[in-house]
Amino acid sequence: MTNGQPGKDKTMDEPEWANGLKQLYNSVVDEPLPDSFRDLLAQLDGDAQGESGARK
User: pTM for the full model?
Assistant: First the structure.
């Protein structure tokens, strides 16, 4: 037996704005990564690999 009421939808316990906030979050997460940011990450990865190789 569960603690919740039988047949009660879980979303009924959430405030009205929660669904909109989830949709906004998901839309941001699904956006593609900008090329400039991808390039920056590649540069940082290259620097990190160069440093670890220099320390060995």
Answer: 0.42
